[in-house]
Amino acid sequence: MPFAQLKDRALISVSGPDAEHFLQNILTTDLDTLGPGQAKPGALLSPQGKILFDFLVSRAGDNGFQLECRADIADDFVRRLMLYRLRAKAEIAKQDHVLVTVAWGDDSTASDFDSIAVDAKALADTRFRDVAVRRSYGGEAKDGGNPNAWLALRIGNGMAESGSDYQLGDAFPHDVLLDETGGVGFKKGCYIGQEVVSRMQHRGTARRRVLIASADSPLPAAGTELTVAGRPVGARGSVGGRTGLAVARIDRVKAAVDTGEAIMAGEVPVTLAIPAWAKFSFPQDAASAEEA
Description:
Distance between the termini: 48 Å
Shape: globular
Number of strands: 17
Strand content: 25-35%
Radius of gyration: 19 Å
Largest sheet: 9 strands, mixed
Mean pLDDT: 92
């Protein structure tokens, strides 16, 4: 089973009698649907609906949770959670130097995972549809695994992460497909930024989406602007040789395809495709959608 040790991740623990109520009221994830042994995506938003912090959340014990996030944002995330805690009976702490391991395969099982991350409980990464992906926190890995293979898997499945694919404070949950990966609870009560996210959902106004980019030559670095006839349509994200991720305006991409105009990543022509599992589609009338 292929696996990788992720050295740029951190864990934040939130525990106590009010932990679930506290998190449910501020995060996009619907914790009522979070089962034992699952790691689900989510975000903490600004009041304007932009992603301030992204993470994977899982249950820990009877009344605790683990929030896996980028290591470089963990301290700021803790401070923001403390700001919102007020009088809630919840303890918030960052866990330092926790080993995060991911493994994947069609027959990825807990017993298989135990041979890779010893003494670490396996969690199902629910974002992935076509391949079983498991994560573990703690324990000991055999070695570093294959981070490049993990990057290729993430790109191939259209799984965007902040820092690599978009900047925090610059994207809505719909932009990075949290609405389709289970990272937004549309049936739960209010949370920070909920009004904006719900309006985008019900009006169908999401135009920026994660797409998979491919080219006949190596793609330029992450952050390279995507253009059509010199006009920006999006930006490149994670790169793995000739494939990568992009967050782009799907109306402008569709218009370019309809007119036969080249979509460029710097000097490299690219093809942009919707992830196979995603439910959204390119607008049928791209010109009208862009004018709206």
